[in-house]
Write a sequence for this structure.
């Protein structure tokens, strides 16, 4: 993409696009639930959606009275990384979506095997955080910016806390019943938390 195309599509995503993380049933890999990072554009303008689909790498299809294009997983993450410098209203959502994808699919990778309880909980927190980020403008419009921060902070603290390197192998006291995962020392994404505004 050219810088002009990145800036243009960032404006489309800010105004008409959706950045989300959701869970759905997945029969292909014999799992009950899978978690997806997605970027969607739905508009009556076929030309705009066609451009989004072409540059993002997805299909442009007609649903009811709108044209729609959806990017999933790696394509969604890569697309958001390209347009991130130009995003304004959905910048926080893009930052979290990129971080979540890198961590969730590297740190709690499930390809070829079942996700354990840790992985399911990590993903469910990601879904809840993105749902709240998508409600931010509505809460702010109704004068509930403080409520947004109060609801987001504990969720984000919990998901970050799950990435604390395990101390069990070092013989240091680990509280009974508390489970953490040992992070990879070669993966910067596991240590660099996204900076989200809590108001």
């Amino acid at each position: 993409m050219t810088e002009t195309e990145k800036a243009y599509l960032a404006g489309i995503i800010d105004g008409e696009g959706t950045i989300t993380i959701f869970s759905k049933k997945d029969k292909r890999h014999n799992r009950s639930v899978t978690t997806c990072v997605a970027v969607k554009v739905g508009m009556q303008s076929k030309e705009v959606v066609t451009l989004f689909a072409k540059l993002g790498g997805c299909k442009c299809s007609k649903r009811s009275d709108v044209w729609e294009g959806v990017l999933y997983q790696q394509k969604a993450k890569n697309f958001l990384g390209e347009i991130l410098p130009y995003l304004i209203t959905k910048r926080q959502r893009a930052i979290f979506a990129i971080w979540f994808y890198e961590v969730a699919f590297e740190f709690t990778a499930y390809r070829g095997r079942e996700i354990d309880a840790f992985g399911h909980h990590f993903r469910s927190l990601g879904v809840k955080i993105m749902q709240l980020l998508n409600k931010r403008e509505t809460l702010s419009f109704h004068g509930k910016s403080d409520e947004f921060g109060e609801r987001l902070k504990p969720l984000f603290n919990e998901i970050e806390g799950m990435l604390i390197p395990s101390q069990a192998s070092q013989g240091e006291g680990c509280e009974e019943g508390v489970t953490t995962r040992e992070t990879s020392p070669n993966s910067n994404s596991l240590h660099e938390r996204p900076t989200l505004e809590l108001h």
